[in-house]
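Case study.
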Amino acid sequence: MASGIPYQQALLEYRVNTSRPQRYPQLSLSADECASLLQAHHPDYAADSREILKVGINRHDPCHPKLAALLQSAPQIDHRVLENAPLTETEVLVIGSGGAGCSAALVAAQHGANVLLATKLRLGDSNTVMAEGGIQASIEPGDTPQRHFDETLRAGHFSSNKRLVEQMVLDGPDVVHWLIQQGMQFDLDEQGNLATRRAGGTSKDRVLYYRDYTGLEMMRVLREAVRNTSAIKVAEHSPVVELLSNGDGHCSGALLYSIEQQQYTVVKANSVILASGGMGRLHLNGFPTSNHLGATGDGLVLAYRLGARVQALDSFQYHPTGFAWPRTLAGTLITEGVRSAGTWLINNRGERFIDELAPRDVVAAAIIRECDEGRGVALETGRQGVWLDTPAVELRTPGILSRRFPKLIALCDNAGVDPEQSPLLICPTLHYQNGGVVISESGETTVPGLYCAGEVSGGIHGKNRIMGNALLEIISFGRRAGAAAAACHPPGNGELSVAHLERFRHEIEKSGLDTNATAPLLFPPYAGFERRPA
Amino acid sequence: MNPAPLNQLLRHPDNRCTDLNEWLASHGGNGLDMALSAPASLIPSIKASGLRGLGGSGFPAYRKWALIAAQANGGERYLICNGNEDEPGTFKDRLLLEESPHQVIEGALITALATGINHIIFYINPHLKHAIETLTSALTQWQQSHYPQQIEQALGTTLALKIAASPGHYIAGEETAAIEAVEGNFPFPRGKPPYPAVAGVNGRPTLINNIETLANVPHIIRNGAEWFQQLGNNDCSGTKIYCVSGDVVAPGAYELPMGTTLETLLLHYAGGVANNGKLKAVFTGGPSNSIVTATSLGIALDFDTMKQHRSALGTGAMIVIAEGNPIIPPVSKYLAFFAKASCGQCPPCTSGTYEMAQLTKKIVAGNGRQHDLDQLTRLSEILPRSGRCHLIDGAVTVLKSSLLHFHAEFQQAVIK
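After joint prediction, the assembly is written out as follows.
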């Protein structure tokens, strides 16, 4: 990467203007131009963003190196822990308490199962609560699930699993109905009907929302419902550190670690639902992330070890406009609405370089291109960004920022920057894991007894996700996994086993990889977390 | 109850004492001398005294101390003396640091002896300029005395003492945020566990005690645990500095036995409620707790009783509103404080505090409508527990409790 102009110098050189030169004759790109831009500059396509897995069911498949290092790490425990840790039994074990985990637990309980819901942080601490945009469901007259289906596939560059997308879009209206039954509120239009708005890359108003708090409101009702369901027990601050099988290859439990008591517990279950979320906190390629503290990809690692097939672990979504400066706001996203309102992205020469409303992956790649080619603004940390030209939009339409984005203004004011006077330095921010564990329509993985729902699973969003489909997916597949897991009974009465760990360790040794590297990673290194050895 | 004379227990009798020799001449240093002669007895004494965290948590002080002391020997251990004090209506730490810095330092030194701590960091809000000056001068005097050498001998290692300006943000007073700040980072609260006693500054065992908590230590050791225990109310021992402000005749800091009733505090010490003498409400401890109303005048102001009343003592701040004065403006002001203090890390908190502040501001300005009030009520339901630290919960609590107690007032304030 070429070095850009240092931040302070660039800020001094910045001049506000009502018009900006264009770096390229055309800012809107054709499909071919988009493809070659992505190829050249999107982080997913960078040379150091991909390696071939050597171990496990997906060997020979590409994966991001940072994730590959974890997937191909040695387990941290062996069979002795099974002998020493106390045993508890449940019918369905759910791991993770965001929207997917909670809806799975509720539906499993509704189908008569006793459920243990184990969560790394507190009940409901998840990326779900941060989802501001809304949830997609084709409920408007003139809209159809077919259209929703087509648009989801197109946004994902036609690499989604069509069966899963079909199920999800067909579930849409019923998911909304179910959420309302749970007590969730949505914004209504003047006639009292559910209000909808349009997501980028779609042709119909299909996003239902509750002000800026859709995910939070969803989590509020799910959390209350979980608390009020006597068949669900909740274990907070209890990350899973290994999945267990019954010797016949059926997933039949897990090893939990209580952070509070620093103790391990073996959970025996008929089936396990993994709803452990994504992996933004791995900070792939050094990018900041919008994800919550627990998003470390640990669920993927454990499922992979047990033999669950994964897919597209080299595909991630980078939100184009996250704060690069002030550093304290790194990872905080600036809504697409700011660009929709006419705010330009400009490089260190004051030139516009992309249609700011192009798809997220294209805008992110264009920003990185400017930085790669020396037209970025550099921080001392080495991170580069480009300007979000807020003073120019303010000059063109005085008062627009404080009128339309008062929260952004307040946030900046708290952090000591003034977007009406100075441009904001932004950079792409790691937002979402597009791939994940392969699942069937019922959420079942390639390992019997192991189900996945939510961001940890893959196949639905292809290589790019549209706004609002994440909240739909977590409830749609959370409920599916819950129902299927409640009906799942392991064959025979095999003993709990960690034989798969021995096999996996052996495979790592054989492939010549470092056996000293271990996983899962429960928290990012800077969280200061240390687990007592088993 | 026969309240002890004002400001006789915690602070030096002369009220202001910034000279070490003067401090030592009036029984100062006795506690430290006793601690040096019998360090093993310190934690049992603190346990028996019932001293609790006076920064607001009310957590038994000895438990944190014992956790540190129980860590394997060797290596660095840190004490952060928390003087980040930033809550509206709270000014007790400033008072202690300005008027009686030696008491705080002596308390910190005894704490280090009890727990084997070898790094003491006085972590003080930079806005308290005068407090930092007096503390700096007081600390220099201690460093030139014979004590540091004696303590180092007892600890078997060197003792580092330093004053560090905190970032001054409200959240920087939270334990894990303080650790981040001491390490030179922005004070983002970390998740707990791991608890600081296990992995704090630089991953080492770290004890964080409030300035007022530490200031109690010398006289507990000097006068004995039993003496201290008798001062308080049941499981809440000793005294508390109550910071009274708002609509009272004589606002100020009053050190009184823990469990003094609200009525005694307001009528006997703070000169009564201003204006018409009638109490409407009190924002207690921060103000991130449920407000207390006139029906609770008899409430004992201690950790346990306040909790039973679904409020909290917090820092001991009592911001008084007289009958006839509106409740919404101060609520709006405190919500604006929380919005300003939200660090930006958790979107629901950033967004939620901002929106609550805006809606109440709109109502205060006379432009509020019914749907704004409905939205406030909704926010108070969906926002709790949406942040990694408790800032958002505090903000919601003050709103929710004022909506509960003064719903009619909110109703009247919005345009029909």
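Observations recorded in class. Residues 53 and 59 of chain B are 5 Å apart (CA to CA). The domain at 328-413 of chain B is CATH 1.20.1440.230 (de novo design (two linked rop proteins)). We will return to this complex in the next lecture.
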